[in-house]
Amino acid sequence: MKKPLSIVWFKKDLRIHDHRPLARAAAQGPCLPLYIVEPELWSQPDQSPRQWLFAQECLTSLNIDLSQLGQPLCVFTGDALSIFQSLHQRHGIASLWSHQETGNHWTYDRDRRIKTWAQAHSIAWYEEQAGGVIRRLISRDHWAQSWDRTMAETPTPPPHRLEPLEEEWSFDVPSAEELFTSSDVCENRQAGGRVEALKLLKTFLYDRGQNYRFHMSSPLTARDACSRL
To answer: What is the DSSP secondary structure assignment for residue 36, as one 8-state letter?
Structure first.
């Protein structure tokens, strides 16, 4: 009998570096890296084809990195709760690992539904804090100290390897034409993926960010002065 799955649910955190849920899950044993393309999410008014094209490039980069560790990325398209239900029926889910997502009201409601379902099926969902957002914060009096502690933490290194799963999993990433009814051409769109991000970081640290504190206050200069990361 196959062991139930430990799933690392990637959302906006499409990387292997400084990814505590991935590192913790991998330390426990085999895990399935999973990204879910949610058509209803991408139909929200704050989403666009150009954002999806960026995400596509990040997914391709992430899949390369995960494959080199030993277990490629799995991509499914559909309603997240329905996909987790199907995976649980077919394989069983032992645990779910992810970052806390800072999104919109739609993602908040989706996470509440999945948390309710996971609790009803005794599935542990381990969510790690991402960035400086603290959930259910009663007072902001000590928020700055908490942010300083978070920023001072040593980044979590990627796992040395991922134990490969026996089954082959889908990496079926829909095109923008399949996901959207309208086009959104942007010739100067920022490119996705770790390699491109490192290039951008370098230009910020050694060039664009030199006058960050002053240029960020003006809409004329902030476009170039911001990190764009």
So the answer is: E
